[in-house]
Amino acid sequence: MAFVYSFLKGIIFTFLFFVLAVVMYLAFWFIVRPFKKRKHFQRYSDTIGYSPTFVPFLGDYKHLNEEYIQKGKFIGHFLRDLALGYGKKKAFFGSLGMDDMVFVNDVEYLTDISKLVPHYLDREPIDTTGFGRVGGTGGLGQSKTTKYWKKRRQIFTKTIGINQASRFIPIFLKHCQKGVKTFEEGMTINMSEHANTVSFEIISEILYGCDIRDKLEKVNYTKRDGTTEIVNLYQCLMKISHDCSFAALNPLNVMFPWLVHYSIGAENKRNTKNSDEFERVIRDICAKSQDSNSVYNQVLKTGEIDKEMAYKDVMAILFAGHETTSKSLCSALFQLKKNPEVEKKLKQEIDEYILQNGKYTVNDLAEILNSQSLDQMDYLSCFVKEVLRHDPPAVRSLGYKAKASFKVKDLLIPKNQIVVFNLYAAQYDEKQWKEPTKFIPERFDPSSDYFLTPSGKQRHPYAFCPFTFGTRTCPGRAIGLMEFKILLIYFMLAIDYEVEKETLENPDVTYAILSPYALNLKINKINV
Ligand code: HEM
């Protein structure tokens, strides 16, 4: 009897001890730690902003949910509002559940902080079982800045960098042409989806080779009700991205990120299962790819990167290199209809430099387009830059983690703090840009009044930063810009389209990554 009693007592004590440990753990991560961090940053309240009220557990989720998610708006516009509303603050401290971030909100601070990469700030590998792996966990974008990373980056830059970008022109055009063949006059198409498909097919062919189509296996995607659906690779990636971004906004996952990490809960389990399936198919494609021109095979040929690493790096590029361009294209097609005088000017330039005043048509682009003809087009260059300034497809940098505490001007950033660059802050800065919320391509033309800052000075070199800057800047800048320009010229020439008036007049519409808006185009005429 005494034995049973002491046994039960032992179990109860162990249980109580366990409950106490969990409560203390939760209290530390969700109340004590964020509260202490807020207290730390309150000492610098002239420099850094934070939400007026501290909400334990959820942090700023309540505000984001009420202002953006529930209203169907783009959550990233929080950063645009931060740039405009908190203009006088150089940074903003925000928290979501266990995570918190410092958003750098000022060009001078951005400049100083980016110089501290990688010695004081570096990437933090994210190992979320669901999204992270599909997004290239441990690949180029998530690895720390080691010697091996530098070597890999150099090798990849050689295969996709400025000197290589023009060899991809036929691939860009081939996939545009294939897509437009499915259009019919009078139909309304979801351009966001179409552009994503085109850019995904482009980057897949560049990375895995031209034989990818024949080898492309169908993917088993598990739906919410547990049944499976056969989809293609692109559809699978889109579905996983959608499911994982949805899961990322689930309050439970916000509060306890390890639920995602360890695939706890039906939705997280499903996301992991789908990511596993996607990974299986990509690995299979890598194993079968014979095209010696593919980036994957070229990188392996150097003998300097092992197979597993090359696989992860290529996955990172697949993920980073398709939506950025397709979203930019949608913003461009949208802005053309919003600003008819801009459209007219750009069409004139394309007519003059590319079509040579009626000598050629859209069907001749494969023969006449090259990097020199693109470089001659000053207005195209201004327009593309203004799209990337006004509607950056990535509204913030990836995360950087402080390796040690450091001071940037007056602000002390503690060790382990996650820091992110708010790109709107630089690109909508009223000290750098005249009327920053307006869409004016001429602001990149040195002969225009809009070229200088409102006080008549040269703009800060980091005021325009859609690819960020420094050691971890986007390595796809050259290929991304060229692809963007070619897709834009092709679609402008291949279709006459219109966008609904209601969409054009809605100031919340944006096509940045994770935006809930889709661009619908009514096709009036097909010119191919
Ligand atoms: C208009 C097109 C694009 C834009 C605006 C863009 C923008 C960005 C931004 C803002 C970052 C984060 C940099 C940081 O955290 O400081 C990034 C990273 C990255 N981008 Fe792009 N990108 C574009 C196209 C591409 C393309 C086409 C590729 C590949 C072919 C690519 C590959 C990458 C990679 C691998 C990273 C991670 C870099 C690192 O951590 O070292 N991007 N990009």
TrEMBL record:
This is Cytochrome P450. The keyword Transmembrane helix applies. It comes from the Eukaryota. Heme binds at C474. Its cofactor is heme. GO terms for molecular function: heme binding; iron ion binding; monooxygenase activity; oxidoreductase activity, acting on paired donors, with incorporation or reduction of molecular oxygen. Keywords: Heme, Iron, Membrane, Metal-binding, Transmembrane, Transmembrane helix. The chain crosses the membrane at residues 12-32. InterPro entries: Cyt_P450 (IPR001128), Cyt_P450_E_grp-I (IPR002401), Cyt_P450_sf (IPR036396), Cytochrome_P450_monoxygenase (IPR050121). Belongs to the cytochrome P450 family. It comes from Euplotes crassus.
